[in-house]
Design brief:
Strand order of the largest sheet of chain A: 2-5-4-6
Order of helices and strands of chain B: HHHHEH
CATH architecture of chain A: Alpha-Beta Complex
Number of domains of chain B: 2
Helix content of chain A: 25-40%
Distance between the termini of chain A: 27 Å
Strand content of chain B: under 5%
Number of strands of chain B: 1
CATH class of chain A: Alpha Beta
Oligomer: heterodimer
Structural class of chain A: alpha+beta
Amino acid sequence: MTTSSSPLPLLLLTGYTLVDYSFDDFPLPDNVHPIWKKIPAIKRAFAANPAAEWVLWLDLDVILMTASLPLSTHLLAPSVLQQKLLPSFPILGSSTRITPAAPNATAVDLIFACDWSGVNAGVMLLRRSAWTEMLLDLWMDPLLIAQDWPAREQEALVHLLDKHDSIWDHVGVVSQRDLNANAFEDEKAGWHEGDLLVHFAGCWVNGECEAHWEEFWRRRSPVPVRYLQGVREWA
Amino acid sequence: MSYKPHLDFDKALLHTSQASRHKRYLLAAAAILLSLYLLLITTDTHVSRQQLSTAVASYSPWRKSDRPPSAAEIEAAEEAEIGSAAPFPASLVKISETRPGPSGDQIVLLMASDDKGNQGNPIPHLHDRAYENRKEYADWHGMSSECP
């Protein structure tokens, strides 16, 4: 790796932008589950960050396990994404869709991973585009919100991509370990050292949320202390 | 015949010549600036691992902490790091091979919640710890790898 002593590169180091909203900022009727507020939150994240090309939505019960893994080389660089999109992959759960035999990374505006129950909307990447704007509008359709779906906004997303080709054509599916690994020992779905993150989806079913969180919090590879030291001393 | 027209002509010629010279100077300056710019953007600007702490120390408006780690903590962390089998992440080394991907400022990490957690099975201090986890990740990729 070559280096430069020029101060200019340092001025160009911008980092990812972290946005943390409170659901209280997005009023919805009391009878609407607050998880629906993730959709206006995504809209606001795009609006408030005009330079943002991609927004990575992360449920709270996600731990970024490998701090050194950049999103560009892990997933978002076009050549990487092209390789990681799953071809001919059946979406499980209530969807009957199968991903194209030859996915096109440049057409993808929404990336997620599937788990045993199908689409998981707890971790997903959305690209700024007119299509994404349309999706976020349709997703908040009162008719969808009014449905008695157990998985609420996630099931609404499944409905949209399952029933509308214009939605499905912009969806990319990657492997679970690339974007939504779980806490269980499983070759394809469970977190392995070096995977980006772990998501404790459904941990409440067996009351394992805290135990999983503490275990993986200890196992994560955080930012080396020496790097943070430089930042913190001079901040 | 008076020589005056010739003088005027000479003055005009002189003006033209000066203007032309100024244009040449401007063009030369622009060419030099363009060359410097091309040299700059084709130079790999990644900061080496060894230089990072010093480099970051000269530009770091990002975050504040209750306290910086003590010297003993830093030493212990470095020893643990050196002693571990984990190599320097290949993903950082390979980044230039996979461009163009989005730069750091083109990526937003988004979290939003009502702090109520996982359907009756709460995780203590979930929001604060999730924030810490994402903040470290976001800052790290400003320091190390995702130069525009």
